[in-house]
Design a protein that fits this description.
Layout: H1 3-12, H2 21-51, E1 66-75, E2 82-87, E3 93-98, E4 102-107, E5 112-117, E6 123-128, E7 134-139, E8 143-148, E9 154-160, E10 165-170, E11 176-181, E12 185-190, E13 198-201, E14 207-212, E15 218-223, E16 228-232, E17 238-242, E18 249-255, E19 258-263, E20 267-272, E21 278-283, E22 287-293, E23 298-303, E24 307-312, E25 318-323, E26 331-335, E27 338-342, E28 347-354
Antiparallel strand pairs: 1-28, 2-3, 3-4, 4-5, 6-7, 7-8, 8-9, 10-11, 11-12, 12-13, 14-15, 15-16, 16-17, 18-19, 19-20, 20-21, 22-23, 23-24, 24-25, 26-27, 27-28
């Protein structure tokens, strides 16, 4: 038999079983590799979900806070988005706005309607003073209306602002109101009195979120230029700038010595209030609203993907993840033990914290 005949014999089977050993080894090895991959990949995926960059681990310590509800649910105008909601610091009063239909104000937890203001036009934002007694609402390319809610509804005046205001925030004592929007600046004015407004310039796109520091001496802003900035309330001086996101900032909140911002880039960033240095990053999805609860011990976050999260503000660990409970979140606000969520189709839902321990003062 020639050398060519020997090679042909390997294929024809004339040389016996062991002549086919290379092929047997190949298929045995392929089976072993496939078996290992099938076993390893699910375990690896579980490990990534628990400990990987998505950080979806849910911590449920014994006796931790939980968001119960919705304890109240309203449909304001079917099919129209609830652009903005607000809750007083003690959680006893809440407000919501819908384009072209005006403003609703409720007393909580009973849910009775406290006030209704009807005014046509597109609404930018709504805010309540910490004590829930002063209401501010911005109308696009028109201005800002102010009302006191102490004895019914009484107008405190109208501030003309034709560039469009997207964000409002009261100072901790309720004496100052900050606003920002398409002018790409932040403005701070006393609610009562005629003193000149303080203006902070520096953002390169629309200002979309505002929050005062606990002492009322610093204002923090988020904008569509992907940055968070800090301003001195006294004179509008820019203290620092943090380019923390890759898309627009939708929401901003303050907890302890940290400023927390949510964005369309799917990341929630935690930065130091003193200098803007980044501390932590969480991937919760497209966050549309943030709210601090019980003096800053807990944080509520709502995403466009329908997640309503309860978070420990110190560790930024998720205590509760209510997937699909609230539906897509258009707006979110909170105070005390109350969280209000506005939806894209006219619904408003109220959730309440239970089993909670308030932070020490």
């Amino acid at each position: 038999m020639t050398h060519g005949d020997e090679i042909l014999g390997c294929w024809s089977g004339d040389s016996g079983f062991w002549a086919k050993a290379p092929f047997v080894h190949f298929w045995a090895g392929a089976f072993a590799v496939g078996f290992c991959l099938a076993c390893a990949f699910p375990a690896q995926a579980r490990t990534r979900r628990r400990h990987g960059r998505h950080h979806r681990r849910v911590i449920r310590p014994r006796g931790a806070c939980r968001l119960d509800g919705p304890v109240k649910s309203f449909v304001l105008v079917a099919g129209k988005p609830v652009r903005s909601v607000a809750v007083s610091a003690d959680g006893r009063r809440a407000a919501a706005v819908v384009d072209g239909s005006g403003v609703w104000v409720w007393n909580l937890p009973a849910g009775g309607l406290a006030a209704r203001i009807v005014r046509p036009g597109k609404i930018g934002s709504v805010a309540l003073s910490p004590d829930g007694m002063t209401l501010a609402v911005s109308w696009d390319q028109t201005g800002i209306g102010l009302w006191t809610l102490r004895n019914g509804v009484t107008s405190l005046g109208w501030w003309k602002e034709t560039t469009g205001v997207l964000a409002l925030a009261f100072s901790p004592d309720g004496r100052l109101l900050a606003y920002g929007g398409r002018r790409r600046s932040v403005t701070i004015r006393p609610v009562r009195g005629g003193s000149a407004p303080v203006v902070g310039m520096g953002h390169t796109s629309w200002v979309s979120a505002l929050v005062f520091g606990r002492a009322g001496k610093t204002l923090y802003s988020g904008a569509w230029d992907d940055t968070v900035r800090a301003w001195r309330v006294l004179d509008g001086h820019a203290l620092w700038r943090a380019p923390v996101h890759s898309f627009a900032v939708n929401a901003i909140a303050l907890a302890g010595s940290s400023v927390i911002s949510g964005s369309d880039d799917g990341r929630t960033k935690v930065d130091r209030t003193s200098d803007g240095a980044q501390i932590k990053t969480r991937r919760w999805g497209q966050v549309k609203g943030l709210a601090v609860l019980l003096g800053g011990r807990y944080l509520a976050a709502g995403t466009w993907g329908g997640r309503l999260l309860l978070v420990d503000a110190a560790s930024m660990g998720v205590l509760q993840n209510r997937r699909g409970e609230a539906g897509p979140v258009e707006s979110l606000a909170g105070g005390g033990r109350t969280v209000m969520v506005g939806g894209p189709k006219g619904s408003v839902k109220v959730y309440e914290l239970t089993g909670c321990v308030a932070s020490a003062k």
